[in-house]
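BUG: 3D viewer hangs when loading the predicted structure for this chain

Environment: internal workstation, default settings.
Expected: structure renders.
Actual: progress bar stalls at 90%.

Input used:
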Amino acid sequence: MAVYATLEQLEREVARLTVQEQLRLVTRIVERLSLTLLERDMQQPSDADELLALCDAAAEMWNGTFDAVQDIRQVRQKRDEQIWPVR
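Structure tokens produced before the viewer hung:
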């Protein structure tokens, strides 16, 4: 059976460590969390990836040719022309 400590109990234990040991502990925790966050970010698709996948899926449903990247470029270009008209 696993024994779990509360945060307060852990803080009391950490306070007993030397400053150098506490710094080593913090370093290990940060390294572990950084790796965990990096792995999570690599596994989760970005918003742009999700949008492109949805566009591709829509094209398949309509049995047409569809270039999501080109269409997004065109939308951006039209928006830019509206914001900064050519004089």
